[in-house]
Write a structure and sequence with these properties.
By secondary structure, the protein is α+β, with helices and mostly antiparallel strands. The protein folds into four domains: 230 residues, Glutamine Phosphoribosylpyrophosphate, subunit 1, domain 1; 202 residues, Rossmann fold, CATH 3.40.50.620; 67 residues, no CATH class; 67 residues, no CATH class. Helix content is 39%, strand content 15%. The mean pLDDT is 93.
Length: 609
Amino acid sequence: MCGIGGFFSRPVDGAAATARSMLNALAARGPDASHVCYFSPAGEVQPQPGPHALLHARLSIIDPRPAADQPMASDDGRYWLCYNGEVYGWQDDARQLMAERPFRTRSDTEFILRGAEAWGIAGLLPRLTGMFAFALVDWKTRELLLVRDRFGKKPLLWWSDGHSLAFSSMVRGVLPALPAAARAFSMPAIDAYLAHRYVPAPLTVFAGIQRLPAGHLLRWPLDGGTPRVERWYPGEDEADTGDWKDELDRAILQRCVADRPVGLFLSGGIDSSLIACRLAAHDVHFDAFTAAFPGSSFDESPAAAALSRRLGLAHHAVEIPGRIRDDFPAIVASLDEPFADPSAIPLWYLARETTRHVKVVLGGDGGDELLAGYKRYRKHLRSAWRRSFRLPFLKPGPALLPGKYRRLREEIALPWSTAYMLRFSGFSPAQRSYLQPGASLPDAYWAPSASVGESALASLLDIDMANYLPEYILRKGDLTTMGHGLELRAPLLDHRFVRSLTALPPSRRFARPAKSLFAEILPADLAQDLFGAKKRGFNPPLTTWLQDDLMERYEGLGNRLQTVTDGGISGAAVDELCATYRRGANALAENVLQLLVLDESLHQLGNLA
């Protein structure tokens, strides 16, 4: 687990300063070691700055010896690898490679490098189980490959003008390699953020920087040319899977392998409880970590503590502070771009404490998307009858009067699937138009469902797997944990386990209550408690923060946003919306948080640009 970066065909003048700035941006992701390799135009390694460079900031989890540091080269120097992530269960496939010549390390990094050398990228990728984003340079064919894992657990950003290319794990890591003219903010991306509370792939907040989508790779000729983005997953060459229970246990146990201490994020919910129970069934007892909100209705730490006692786990209840004023800039910086999920704040604090005890943690991400666990699925399916039917002539009503009626009017004016994309949204289309008067705005920015002719539920799950899961849930988990040098692993998103679930009959996979399939391998009394409890989510005391801790940020907010967006956002509209909230319109709380995050994020990024 690391931070990666690089640039190609850059003027040598300033290359050293660029590399230093890129590594500084990645430092939190890789606190254990950092290296830069410069290359001549012909691909020869050279000690002085050159036009090509690979950079790596390492969090050492497997084989922490310097021999496993990166960038890593093949024996003959043809291939060079810069890799972020963790691949599991690779040792069996590695044996045939080791029969030809021994490995120099015990690392999955060397397996990826040697596998690419032996099988090519098409033969390697189906063999990779886990989370990964990597750059592979082939100096013989003079091609750069950028690859992102199946479900988008690891980020990868890039920029190219056709002659040069730069990439990194973070927007802030790409930025130092860009010419000044390429550092302009993107108003479509800012509007996408207003719509979805984050900037969806392939957009980023900078007009020239793109995010490689999950399950895709990019090919770029080192001598210049147009980057070519290709989808590699899902593919036709994935191996068959076994029973979902066996695949689940395999996925969990494989993610227990590390040369650093491992822990578990444990809430009072079904998914993390399932992982904890399966670990205990195999006599694995990690420390458990839970975000605690004492005295609130959404505090799950007592339930997590009770389960920990039952399973014999050491439990750490991490109390989330009541004041975030001093940490707010650091939290926004860790999130890289504008990102306004309120739960990212407690997760950032949870990760900060957890990394003091362990360097790897297992989490329960993915269960809701796989087994239709969110309430919004059931709510939106009630109107599945209308599918393409819409009433576009309906007017949404006043933008600053939030409520179910106004939302319903907006929803029925949109196609059914588009309305779903905005069900878990930030600002509504009418509110976005209010903030950006005169702008022509699309309804949404998510990729549509690829499930042609399938059920309505399949379409909703497909939309979430392509958008919400990789770029919201997994991005939040990666950035908040890696901001503290902590590796987060997601057993429920093992691709073989995912296929074993999707192969089940819908009547079993989606049996009510949601995720009741998991009850088959949970203790009966625990399953009764878990499935009888109300789903609470990961909710922080947002109102307290907005009405007290961050109050000073309202002064001049509209003017700052109008200035930084060159008038794209109306300062008067921003100030009126905030004033409406402060007069008692509490339903606007998350909208106000979005504006405060946007203000701080653009301020930070503008200073870097």
